[in-house]
Write a structure and sequence with these properties.
The protein has eight helices and eleven strands. It is α/β, with parallel strands linked by helices. The protein folds into two domains: 187 residues, Vaccinia Virus protein VP39 (Rossmann fold); 59 residues, N-terminal domain of TfIIb (Single Sheet), CATH 2.20.25. The chain has a seven-stranded mixed beta sheet, with helices on both faces. A four-stranded antiparallel beta sheet has the order 6-7-8-9. The longest helix is centred in the middle third of the chain and has 14 residues. The protein is globular.
Length: 253
């Protein structure tokens, strides 16, 4: 999937992204409660780059926890929304529109942490992944932490599901339904159809968003990180971390 198509997916979704969650603010707080302890801050304020920040689900939580945060994303629409959300919460986050495979335009370096959460990396092909891990490494200080999360593709590539179970939120008159349909292109690539249906005053409106992913296996991502000079590559499942996706962490050598 090309850069323009990926950006277009998130541009279109930016104003509605919060509807994926039953309560976005509560989800932000819950995720921060899980992720912040993994950063190893030891009471310090860390310098964090969220290089796939979207509308700010994790970046806002990191900043609210007292860390200095820079957020970047390929989608200009998502960045515009993230800026508004940060301003509304009185959080001084610096945002950039930037491709995670280059991180051009982000002049700062020596970050304590770079994060790429919410299944951002599986948009990339093998070459894009190689470039992204190199770009991330160039922004971290020596010994700095990279933290990413992806879907459990080691399992999904075997099951090859064709849909994701719908989520139902709200009460009669103001309900929401969130569901996905997956069309498999080949053994590892699939097209996601994301549907958001919202009830207002007895009338339903549905939005449809389309993107492409590939099954990025743990070993491939681990090898890409090692090839980019990272060490201490570790995986945590949801049962260990408490996060909703498997998490990988690695240290810049």
């Amino acid at each position: 999937m090309g850069v323009r198509m990926i950006a277009g997916f998130y541009d279109g979704l930016a104003e509605w992204y919060h509807l994926i969650f039953e309560d976005w603010d509560r989800a932000m707080s819950r995720q921060a409660g899980v992720l912040v302890p993994l950063l190893g801050a030891g009471g310090r304020s860390l310098k964090i780059l969220d290089c796939a920040c979207g509308i700010g689900t994790q970046a806002l939580g990191f900043a609210a926890a007292g860390h200095r945060v820079v957020g970047s994303d390929l989608s200009a629409g998502a960045i515009a929304r993230a800026r508004r959300e940060a301003s509304a919460r009185g959080l001084g986050i610096e945002f950039h529109v930037a491709d995670m495979t280059t991180l051009e335009g982000i002049l700062e370096g020596e970050f304590d942490v770079v994060a790429a959460l919410d299944n951002a990396l599986p948009h990339l092909d093998a070459e894009g992944l190689r470039r992204a891990t190199a770009a991330v490494g160039s922004k971290l200080k020596s010994g700095g932490l990279f933290l990413a999360s992806i879907r459990d593709y080691d399992r999904l590539i075997k099951d090859r599901p064709t849909s994701q179970e719908p989520a139902f939120y709200g009460r009669s008159g103001e309900r929401r339904i969130v569901h996905q349909v997956w069309d498999w292109i080949d053994r590892e690539r699939y097209v996601v159809h994301l549907y958001l249906s919202v009830e207002r005053g007895g009338e339903w409106e549905t939005w449809h968003f389309v993107s492409e992913y590939r099954c990025l296996l743990r070993e491939e991502l681990s090898e890409a990180l090692r090839g980019a000079g990272f060490s201490d590559v570790r995986w945590m499942g949801a049962e260990e971390s408490g996060f909703y996706q498997p998490i990988v962490s690695a240290r810049r050598g």
